[in-house]
């Protein structure tokens, strides 16, 4: 035996071992003890608790993880993940444990020093209010006086964000809030009240209760998904559906996986294990990321395209797949897939315009001489057997028409669609002109397609156009074609993309080949996980269409383990129907006001005034000049007046007064409004957004942190919307770039909002700038529901403790506000009629409003508009303002009569209402007498579950039966008709949902969810013009932008648009010190979920303790920056002060300021502005893409969070320099 | 033969996503209190990186663990017991708080109490040691994800040993995560270093603990532990360390760090070993032989002789059953993919690791180094971004062959399973090339990829 040390110490040890209990090892190294461990009782005590409660975190991360919350002596101690998810199958990994370090750090907030314990209000405002109320005796009059007196108004607005918050009582806070709402509705109109609260799925009741209040009073709920730029516009464009994606357990089914701009371990932490595990099953993983990201660790190969150039790589991969798997060789499965499930075989008219032929509109049945309104929405293909044009089932023309019943399906009968006209007898070869955007200036490509004349129209197939667009040559076709893969000069070869992306051409070829080969061998199990790295760009829709082409060409979409997996702020409120009824008060009044967030902020923060470029900056060289001479704000106004996109505030008049006027005139409201507008006697508010009568006046934010997180153009928000100091450095547009149809005020207003109200449990940038802050209960202090698309379960929030101090649940807070509102409103408002302007809506016959997507603007033609055709629908809604609180607290009667509609299917819910009456009890008195009660949060939970198909099998089965009548295909057996999920079920354990037509995939039989499997397997059309997945878009504006086909568009040229310096060099800051010019990206952080947790001490301790900017060693060297130096990043939009993180995992030329590092923790004053250094969004601003404003045409029609302009922010650049290292706060 | 039972853990670094959930749940459960602000029983390090506390692996500096005397006897590197007794009041071999990090908080209350002023209120950082305003220059995880690596990675003691193999540049970037808890060693130098006899190893399960009543705060254990996993509570003046969550494992629950590991990479199992052979094995002359030597100390739980001897020691039947089902034992022996952390410290650590695969280096991609291509299996291993030499310095005292063998097995599993995944005929030659059978590969696959909660612990 090897001995120890030496003889002396051994002797000491031998002596010592007799003096203490326990057994010393024979060689004297170790002491073993069994018993006598009283000293360790401390740890046993610490691991003891009184109860463990199931809850989760209502944070915008899509995790929807069920947690155990430990409580001891009435105090929350800590949390660990639940591990009781139902099995997803014995042969695959399960969902336990779900959770991440952020969630694990949540309980820190409960008792933290940043917990909002009491209601607060801006001191100067409260003083003025108390004085005015004492004098005037009426809260509403007091509010009116303060907000209309310019001096008083300036006093409290300019103090926003600068301390001076004081504690107030709940009663007083609620009274001020109620008075503000009443005054605003009375004076300016209910559409001047707005609410912002995102992501219902993460806590459905908390969202719904506030949205219900806003909706019932006629206020406007602002969209979030498009505003966050998480909404992929390509999804409606291609699928006619918004973000339907596989659950993460379906990654396991993929045999080839590309992570494209998605950092799964950081942004989908609880799902990341599926990545690691699927590799063990032989899945190949490729990561496309500009930096060596966390996800790269799991890759077999890492490709690092330059930021924003992913579309070029995807187009080149498409080139390879088309060449090798369609032209050189035909894969039977791919061919049969694209013939049935995509628009590739459909015919497109070729427009002969002077010397150029360009792709035009889809050939439709109307072109063949068919009669009826729907004929223009029935697209045409050629039967390969007969060579004759046929009108197959399934296009939009079959969806709503009576004669379409049983024919809206993907059955082709005996027809074998002809994919190409190439080589057919009567085909002629025609050279078409196609736009390209890869150079400094847009250019034109001329490439031949085979074409035929049908009914007088020169036509070709979408497939033939796609081959021309991708540059895949076929012998004999005219035009300029690439010489081969190694031709770098023309789109879209592998060598061409190498110049743009830096990815070696050979690797692009190989990855494309492997991807398609895997799809062929596995039956479509090639998947692309898409992330914000590719989705937050101005032209992300083009990037995404290039991706989606890869998964549709290879037959992967609608297959378990295949297709797109877009995980960017996506959510799946699985019980969507029930939630929507409650959230928008559809049980009491319809329609609600729902606004596209980006347009709202763009106008009301006056960012439109800083557009120093024309809207035609996006136009194709082959365009017809539709955007010429216009500003983006002009197009926004056009979209609003044509009824494409919603616009609230709508008119330059109070809609309550407008209703009275129409009634007085004895006219039908729609006709009255249209006539007045056409006559120029009534204007749209968006045509004069800076006029005081058109400002939004009251904004309530809950479950969100607008000013610390999502507010692109943060400094513009502060300056114009709030009227306090902002660090905007940009100049306004000169006369040559100003809008022509939107009024330009000489001076931009500062301080539009009368009241900014926030509800939160922690201090954020939003609460710091709010006039009133209400203390919210946390997620461990209330009942609610959670779901996600990452897993198929619904589960509960349950209070571990009662809301402490003076905090209240959102449910209690909004009911308190509603009650006081009703009291004041009864006197000041009474019962009024409200005229709601509603845009043309998706999944309704409104989609038929614009045949061929051909734009006719009544203002330009001088016609009188027709509501519902080329003008918003005008709907009169009665509002009993005194009864709002009663209506909130009961399920209204409209449901009985009209049912509940989701994505075009209406559910009759009579038995459900009876059941809720029994479960929740009924209301005894008032307007809601006899109706099911919603007086408690658990009542709302129960109602959401009862009124949704995913959680109530009776409704799911009913929905499928209704759908089957329209399609004529069979959905029997998909819905588990007899299963019902109650709130108690979700409290016991996460519960798998029921397959329902509310979504496009099937969980039936324990199967993993993947989008569009129902479409593929049951021949249900997509909700698009052709009823198929779309490669081709033929709306006028899409064509004007040159985006009819998948195309590569580079990041915006900020130098040309705004005069910013070119990335890569250096530039002076403040006229002196040199800084390095870099691309500025804001990817999601490892240490926070948006701004949540970025102030959490545990997360700060595990990172660098405050705001940082990551940069490469080369860029750091250029500006003399060392790791952990204080730096300032400056551009025209504002200033950020942060510390540098220098790392060689960053590429040269690009910096990351991880998302939502706000100004509350360790942000000093800036040398540049002299004021508090900003947040990540102080350097960004909104840029609206005109094609996102299209509406009223097939899948390009508005629905809330389905379609709208994105608040993209990735095309930005900044100058970074080292600043003085002594900082002042 | 004297049989003892040891609770042990294996972490599969190939699955670790570096999320730190384990660290947070552990800290929340055990060390979020005064005196332990800087203490993380469980922490996660980005490698290459300096670790926590900084450069703890550099035993030339910190003198942790054991060394061999010229006569081949084990001696604490921090010096003989007499030496340590003489320096008990002035132990210079302690990491300072700055080597861990100086914990801080923020004056959050400013956000509420700021009077009307001319700018936005902000919470400034404040030291939890001095209470004064501070500038943050180091944290519990400062170099996460290669943060500051161009300057800081040079301080990584492991990287220094293989610096000729590694270039810290974008094109060759690599990183992986190393979660760490107390190793609950078979030959714990902390226990040996304690002058008060307060540290001990539980006889029934081998968990190493500090008797809070007996601890006198000499901190020799801090010096003695080469992993720096014993901490000094500056409020109580006593040592504290990872307890392997004994209040949980005693009632059949896994440790907090394991249960909450969202990467599902932790396995807990019982291992039987011959306590009589520990000292000899720890004194194995060549550090590269220590990995095999430690395996030699473990006993086969299926061996009737071992079972009889275990019964004689009073080890209960259900424990023996647990030893037979132990995923840890299977990963070390049946599949041969788990390796000890720094065996050269000679403490016989009992938290083992499966080394990570990584993407191939771009420059080598075009030569066809495809991890799933059976024909290229072995070529691919040397083309991986994480240099095998770096891993070998962590797990096998620099011997690259055991690391290569593990990585080949992982790659072979992927290659073998890919064919099955695609509905093709399994290729037994892939399994044979790494000394396994297809059946064994499938068993390993099940444990590494699928194993549910009850199979992992």
From TrEMBL, chain A:
Q: Which GO BP terms, alphabetically?
A: nitrate assimilation
One GO cellular-component annotation of the UniProt record comes to: plasma membrane
Regarding the membrane, this protein is recorded as: Peripheral membrane protein
**Molecular function in Gene Ontology:** 4 iron, 4 sulfur cluster binding; metal ion binding; molybdopterin cofactor binding; nitrate reductase (quinone) activity
Pfam families, alphabetized: Molybdopterin, Molydop_binding
Task: Give yes or no: UniProt keyword Iron-sulfur.
Answer: yes
Q: Which cofactor does it need?
A: [4Fe-4S] cluster; Mo-bis(molybdopterin guanine dinucleotide)
Reactions this protein catalyses: nitrate + a quinol = a quinone + nitrite + H2O
Taxonomically, which superkingdom?
A: Bacteria
Q: Which InterPro entries match?
A: Asp_de-COase-like_dom_sf, MopB_CT_Nitrate-R-NarG-like, MoPterin_dinucl-bd_dom, Mopterin_OxRdtase, Mopterin_OxRdtase_4Fe-4S_dom, Mopterin_OxRdtase_prok_CS, MopterinOxRdtase_cofactor_BS, NarG
Tell where it localizes: Cell membrane
SMART domains per the record? Answer: Molybdop_Fe4S4
Q: Which keywords does the record carry?
A: 4Fe-4S, Cell membrane, Electron transport, Iron, Iron-sulfur, Membrane, Metal-binding, Molybdenum, Nitrate assimilation, Oxidoreductase, Transport
Q: What is its EC number?
A: 1.7.5.1
The segment(s) forming the 4Fe-4S Mo/W bis-MGD-type domain are 50-114
Report the sequence similarity comment from the record.
Answer: Belongs to the prokaryotic molybdopterin-containing oxidoreductase family.
Protein name per UniProt: Nitrate reductase alpha subunit
Give the organism, scientific name. Answer: Thermopolyspora flexuosa
Name the lineage.
Bacteria, Bacillati, Actinomycetota, Actinomycetes, Streptosporangiales
């Amino acid at each position: 035996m090897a001995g120890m040390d030496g003889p002396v110490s051994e002797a000491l040890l031998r002596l010592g071992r007799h003096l203490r209990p326990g057994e010393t090892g024979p060689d004297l190294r170790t002491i073993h003890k069994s018993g006598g461990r009283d000293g360790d009782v401390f740890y046993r005590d610490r691991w003891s608790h009184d109860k463990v409660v199931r809850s989760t975190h209502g944070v915008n991360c899509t995790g929807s993880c069920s947690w155990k919350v430990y409580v001891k002596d009435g105090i929350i101690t800590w949390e660990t993940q639940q591990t009781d998810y139902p099995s997803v199958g014995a042969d695959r990994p399960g969902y336990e444990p779900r959770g991440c370090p952020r969630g694990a750090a949540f309980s820190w907030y409960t008792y933290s020093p940043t917990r909002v314990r009491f209601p607060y209000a801006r001191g100067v405002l409260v003083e003025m209010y108390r004085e005015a109320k004492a004098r005037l005796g009426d809260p509403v009059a007091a509010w009116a006086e303060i907000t209309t007196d310019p001096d008083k108004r300036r006093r409290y607005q300019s103090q926003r964000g600068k301390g001076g918050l004081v504690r107030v009582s709940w009663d007083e806070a609620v009274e001020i809030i109620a008075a503000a709402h009443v005054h605003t509705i009375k004076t300016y109109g209910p559409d001047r009240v707005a609410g912002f609260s995102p992501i219902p799925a993460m806590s459905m009741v908390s969202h719904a209760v506030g949205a219900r209040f806003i909706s019932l009073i006629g206020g406007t709920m602002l969209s979030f998904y498009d505003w966050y730029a998480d909404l992929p516009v390509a999804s409606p464009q291609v699928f006619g559906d918004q973000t339907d994606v596989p659950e993460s357990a379906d990654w396991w089914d993929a045999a080839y996986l590309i992570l494209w701009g998605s950092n799964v371990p950081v942004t989908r932490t609880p799902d990341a294990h599926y990545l690691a595990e699927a590799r063990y099953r032989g899945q190949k993983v490729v990561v496309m990321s500009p930096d060596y990201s966390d996800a790269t660790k799991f890759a077999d190969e890492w490709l690092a395209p330059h930021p924003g150039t992913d579309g070029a790589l995807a187009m080149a991969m498409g080139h390879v797949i088309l060449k090798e798997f369609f032209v050189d060789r035909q894969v039977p499965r791919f061919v049969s897939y694209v013939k049935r499930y995509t628009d590739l075989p459909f015919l497109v008219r070729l427009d002969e315009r002077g010397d150029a032929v360009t792709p035009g509109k889809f050939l439709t049945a109307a072109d063949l001489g068919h009669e009826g309104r729907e004929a223009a929405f029935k697209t045409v293909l050629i039967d390969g057997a007969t060579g004759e044009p046929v009108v197959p089932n399934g296009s939009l023309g079959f969806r709503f028409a009576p004669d379409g019943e049983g024919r809206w399906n993907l059955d082709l009968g005996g027809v074998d669609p002809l994919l190409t006209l190439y080589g057919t007898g009567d085909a002629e070869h025609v050279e078409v002109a196609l736009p390209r955007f890869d150079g400094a200036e847009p250019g034109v490509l001329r490439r031949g397609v085979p074409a035929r004349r049908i009914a007088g129209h020169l036509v070709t197939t979408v497939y033939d156009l796609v081959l021309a667009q991708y540059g895949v040559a076929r012998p004999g076709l005219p035009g300029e074609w690439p010489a081969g893969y190694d031709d770098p000069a023309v789109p879209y070869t592998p060598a061409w993309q190498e110049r743009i992306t830096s990815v070696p051409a050979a690797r692009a070829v190989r990855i494309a080949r492997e991807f398609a080969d895997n799809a062929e061998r596995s039956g479509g199990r090639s998947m692309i996980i898409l992330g914000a790295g590719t989705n937050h760009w101005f032209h992300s829709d083009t990037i995404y269409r290039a991706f989606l082409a890869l998964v549709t060409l290879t037959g992967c979409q609608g297959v378990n383990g295949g297709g797109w997996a877009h995980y960017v702020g996506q959510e799946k409120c699985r019980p969507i129907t029930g939630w929507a009824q409650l959230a928008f008060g559809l049980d009491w009044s319809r329609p609600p006001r729902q606004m596209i967030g980006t347009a709202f902020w763009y106008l009301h923060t006056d960012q439109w005034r800083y557009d120093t470029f024309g809207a035609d900056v996006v136009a194709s060289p082959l365009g017809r000049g539709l955007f010429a001479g216009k500003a983006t704000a002009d197009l926004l106004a056009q979209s609003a007046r044509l009824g494409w996109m919603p616009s609230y505030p709508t008119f330059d008049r109070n809609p309550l007064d407008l209703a009275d006027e129409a009634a007085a005139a004895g006219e039908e409201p729609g006709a009255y409004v249209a006539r007045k507008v056409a006559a120029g006697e009534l204007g749209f508010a968006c045509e004069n957004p800076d006029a005081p009568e058109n400002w939004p006046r009251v904004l309530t934010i809950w479950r969100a942190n607008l000013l610390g997180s999502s507010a692109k153009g943060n400094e513009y928000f502060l300056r114009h919307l709030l009227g306090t100091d902002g660090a905007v450095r940009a100049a306004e547009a000169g006369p040559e770039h100003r809008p022509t149809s939107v009024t330009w005020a000489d001076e931009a207003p500062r301080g539009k909002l009368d009241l900014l109200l926030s509800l939160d449990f922690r201090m954020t940038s939003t609460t710091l700038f709010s006039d009133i802050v209400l203390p919210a209960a946390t997620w461990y202090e209330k009942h609610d529901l959670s779901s996600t698309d990452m897993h198929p379960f619904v589960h509960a929030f349950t209070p571990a403790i009662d809301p402490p101090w003076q905090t209240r649940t959102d449910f209690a807070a909004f009911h308190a506000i509603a009650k006081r509102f009703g009291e004041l409103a009864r006197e000041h408002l009474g019962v009024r009629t409200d005229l709601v302007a509603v845009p043309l809506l998706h999944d309704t016959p409104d989609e038929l409003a614009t045949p061929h997507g051909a734009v006719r603007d009544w203002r330009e033609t001088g016609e009188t508009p027709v509501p519902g055709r080329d003008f918003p629908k005008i709907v009169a809604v009665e509002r009993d303002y005194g009864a709002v609180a009663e209506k909130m607290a009961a399920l209204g009667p409209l449901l009985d009569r009209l049912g509940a509609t989701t994505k075009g299917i209406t559910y009759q819910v009579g038995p459900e209402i009876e059941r809720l009456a029994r479960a929740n009890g009924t209301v005894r008195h008032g307007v809601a007498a006899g109706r099911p009660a919603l007086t408690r949060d658990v009542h709302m939970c129960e109602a959401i579950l009862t009124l949704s198909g995913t959680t109530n099998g009776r409704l799911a089965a009913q929905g499928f039966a209704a759908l089957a009548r329209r399609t004529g295909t069979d959905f029997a057996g998909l819905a588990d008709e007899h299963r019902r999920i109650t709130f108690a079920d979700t409290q016991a354990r996460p519960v798998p949902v029921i397959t329902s037509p509310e979504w496009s995939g099937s969980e039936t039989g324990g199967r993993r969810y993947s989008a569009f499997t129902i479409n593929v397997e049951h021949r249900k059309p997509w909700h698009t013009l052709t009823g198929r997945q779309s490669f081709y878009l033929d709306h006028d504006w899409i064509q004007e932008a040159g985006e009819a086909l998948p195309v590569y568009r580079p990041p915006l040229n900020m130098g040309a648009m705004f005069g910013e310096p070119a990335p890569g060099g250096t530039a002076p800051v403040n006229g002196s010190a040199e800084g390095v010019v870099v691309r500025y990206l804001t990817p999601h952080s490892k240490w926070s979920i948006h701004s949540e947790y970025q102030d959490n001490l545990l997360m700060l301790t595990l990172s660098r303790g405050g705001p940082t900017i990551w940069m490469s060693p080369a860029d750091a060297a250029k500006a003399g920056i060392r790791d952990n130096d204080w730096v300032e990043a400056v551009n025209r939009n504002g200033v950020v002060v942060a510390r540098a993180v220098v790392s060689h995992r960053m590429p040269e030329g690009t910096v990351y300021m991880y998302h939502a590092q706000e100004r509350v923790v360790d942000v000093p004053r800036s040398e540049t502005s002299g004021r508090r250094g900003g947040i990540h969004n102080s350097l960004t601003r909104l840029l609206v893409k005109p094609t996102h404003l299209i509406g009223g045409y097939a899948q390009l029609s508005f629905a809330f969070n389905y379609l709208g302009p994105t608040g993209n922010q990735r095309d930005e650049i900044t100058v970074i320099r080292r600043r003085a290292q002594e900082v002042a706060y | 033969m004297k049989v003892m039972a040891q609770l042990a853990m294996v972490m599969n670094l190939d699955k670790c996503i570096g999320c730190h959930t384990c660290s947070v749940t552990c800290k929340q459960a055990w060390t979020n209190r005064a005196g332990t602000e800087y203490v993380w029983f469980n922490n996660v390090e980005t490698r290459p990186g300096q670790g926590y506390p900084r450069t703890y692996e550099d035993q030339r500096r910190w003198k942790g663990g054991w060394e061999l005397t010229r006569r081949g006897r084990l001696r604490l590197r921090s010096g003989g017991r007499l030496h340590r007794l003489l320096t008990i009041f002035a132990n210079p071999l302690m990491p300072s708080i700055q080597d861990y990090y100086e914990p801080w908080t923020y004056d959050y209350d400013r956000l509420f109490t700021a009077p009307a002023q001319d700018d936005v209120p902000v919470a400034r950082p404040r030291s939890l040691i001095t209470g004064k305003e501070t500038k943050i220059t180091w944290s519990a995880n400062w170099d996460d994800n290669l943060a500051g690596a161009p300057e800081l990675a040079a301080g990584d003691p492991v990287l220094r040993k293989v610096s000729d193999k590694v270039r810290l540049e974008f094109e060759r970037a690599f990183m992986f995560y190393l979660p760490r808890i107390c190793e609950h060693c078979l030959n714990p130098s902390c226990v040996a270093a304690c002058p008060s006899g307060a540290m001990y190893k539980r006889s029934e399960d081998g968990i190493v603990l500090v008797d809070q009543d007996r601890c006198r705060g000499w901190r020799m254990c801090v010096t003695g532990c080469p992993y720096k996993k014993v901490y000094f509570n500056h409020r109580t003046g006593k040592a504290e360390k990872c307890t392997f969550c004994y209040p949980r494992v005693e009632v059949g629950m896994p440790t907090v760090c394991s249960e909450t590991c969202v990467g599902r990479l932790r396995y807990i199992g019982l291992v039987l070993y011959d306590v009589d052979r520990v000292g000899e094995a720890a004194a194995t002359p060549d550090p590269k032989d220590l990995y095999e030597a430690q395996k030699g100390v473990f006993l086969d739980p299926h061996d009737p002789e071992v079972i009889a001897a275990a019964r004689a020691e009073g080890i209960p039947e259900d424990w023996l059953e647990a030893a037979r089902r132990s995923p840890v034992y299977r990963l070390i022996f049946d599949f041969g993919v788990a390796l000890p952390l720094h065996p050269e410290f000679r403490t016989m650590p009992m938290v083992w690791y499966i080394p990570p695969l990584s993407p191939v280096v771009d420059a080598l991609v075009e030569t066809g180094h495809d991890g799933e291509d059976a024909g290229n299996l072995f070529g691919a291993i040397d083309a991986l971004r994480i240099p095998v030499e770096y891993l070998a310095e962590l797990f096998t005292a620099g011997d690259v062959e055991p690391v290569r063998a593990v990585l080949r097995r992982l790659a072979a599993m992927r290659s073998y399973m890919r064919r099955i995944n695609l509905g093709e005929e399994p290729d037994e030659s892939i399994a044979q090339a790494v000394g396994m059978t297809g059946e064994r590969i499938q068993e390993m696959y099940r444990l590494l990829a699928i194993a549910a909660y009850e199979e992992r612990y």
